[in-house]
Amino acid sequence: DIIGSHLYTMVPTEQCEAINDAFSHALTGIAQRFEIEIASRSGDLHYVDISFLPTVVMDNVVGVYGVVKEMTALRHNEAQLRIFQRSLEASSNGVLICEARSDDFPIIYVNPAFVEITGYELEEVQNRNCRFLQGPDTDPAQINDIRQALVQQRDISLTIRNYRKDGRAFWNNVFISPVRANDGHATHFVGVINDISEYKDHENELAFHATHDALTGLGNRALFEDRLQHDVDLARRHHQQLAVLFIDLDEFKPINDTLGHAVGDQVLIHVARRLEEAIRPSDTLCRFGGDEFVLLLPDLDDPHHAQEVAERLLLELAQPYRIDRHELYLSASIGIALSDEALENPAALLQQADMAMYKAKQQGRNTLQTFTYDINQKLTQRVTLRNDLQEAITQEQFELHYQPLLTRDGDIHGFEALVRWNHPVKGPISPGLFIPIAEETGQIIGLSQWVMERAAKDFLKLQPLLPNHCRMAVNLSPMQFHRPSFLSSLRKTLEVTGLPPTALELELTEGTLMNDTEAAIDTLHALRGMGISIAIDDFGTGFSSLSYLRHLPIDKIKIDRSFILNIVESSKDAAVVQGIIALAHHLELNVVAEGVETSAQQQHLLALNCDVLQGFLFAKPMPFEPLTHWLA
Description:
Layout: H1 16-27, E1 32-39, E2 45-57, E3 60-70, H2 72-90, E4 94-99, E5 107-110, H3 112-118, H4 122-125, H5 140-152, E6 156-163, E7 169-180, E8 186-195, H6 197-211, H7 221-237, E9 241-250, H8 253-259, H9 261-277, E10 284-289, E11 292-300, H10 304-317, E12 321-323, E13 326-328, E14 331-338, H11 347-362, E15 368-370, H12 373-395, E16 398-407, E17 412-423, E18 427-429, H13 431-441, H14 444-462, E19 471-475, H15 478-481, H16 486-497, E20 504-509, H17 510-514, H18 517-530, E21 533-539, E22 556-559, H19 561-564, H20 571-586, E23 590-593, H21 599-607, E24 612-613, H22 624-631
Parallel strand pairs: 14-15, 17-19, 19-20, 20-21, 21-22, 22-23, 23-24
Antiparallel strand pairs: 1-2, 2-3, 4-5, 4-8, 6-7, 7-8, 9-11, 9-14, 10-11, 12-13, 16-17, 16-24, 17-18
């Protein structure tokens, strides 16, 4: 097809001039060689190598011998090699190539990223085995895995701890793969390495925060539960005993509230360090949040060892804390739970220790308590009672009983409203049992509101039968009294029920007034301004500070029944009562004696000039209907 055609017909027009120049030079006897791109009949481009060789006869150039060689595949391969080489050089992953057929798999090439990651130059690693990257913390099992993969000529991918030239360790995500010849045998190995130290550090940091407390660095609940399961299993196999100590700081909240969370956080850090210093390396100490710490003591030699540790911790925690310019004092309540062979659920130990700690709180704090099943039974009863209490408030299962207060002359002075709970299944439940629970749970607010409203309505029904000076006395809970909305809520109740403020008397304990005394005094002044009478209930059983009475805008004190019980037989009790009455009268306060049960007690109190008497001798607390008959 091309016989008789000119070469120009097969090459691009712009290349004709260059070809013509090369041909002209060949005619002068100088061989020429160049490469051009031409298109085939189908339009495909081809790289060709053209040589123009002069044909010389008798020293004369008589023609040109042209040789055209197909170079497309070769040039394509060369281009690919350049791309591959540039890719290796530009890659952020380190690459090394080893000889597979030589002993010890010597390195023949590393790319710039390998140099950047490891610090080793190509000249330093050539002909060496890659084991120079290994160090003291490199896992021997992983080294063996790599060795086996090389021997078996197979791929392997793993994350291994390697070392840089300067000795610094790094986490290396490495992939090694064989390069095979046509016969299937490996001629080389290509290793790709990637420094993932930053990712690994971040991963470790996340894992740490998932199992540790950010403030103190101690383990958290997740870590504790994992260690507890492990240590319980271990103790069961070796027939050992372990203990869980639940440690709760006493009165930590006031530190946060008064000095701020920054100081509170420093206290918690100091507590954590003291606890750490007082335990064994094999023990597990965790913070559950707030001011709660939990300690796991494995492999106990003796069950009493747990109690000894708890006693030591109580002493350590009681030492003063110096935070900035503050010197602070704390105590703790510790509950102890001991494992036994019958333990099925390790988490039960934590629950038992928590119950025991709660019992320690009830015993006055700064003490320890070991869990017993009696504690479990009582706390279970409390939980059940708390649930029943909420239902009782919702369904109004409560009723009020009223106990009269009499003057020295036997006239009606007023009534004290006392709440009673007759459970539909369990029968009557003592206020001494359900009132503290209602205080702890906050249910006392709803219950107190109901008491106030019912007492007001009942008193209005009784008023036509009573002297003008009579009042209805209602006990106030500390939570109710210290609520910011207390005064506004009380005014609304009086408005809704129609009870005059001068017909209401509020009874508070000494402890209620001692908490935030300045605010309490302001509230008392507001109550007095409304015309409401204030009485200090159970006087003598709380702080027993007589001096503070002169600062309080109150009208009356009620001597606790514990002093009245033995007033006839005990000269000391009689002296205390006499002193209280004398002081109160000097301060122009009325005095009520609670728990008067005998005529002898009555006569003794009258002789001491007690103003008002209350007790079973005159009348027991009674529901509204019997009260109306009693009055009649």
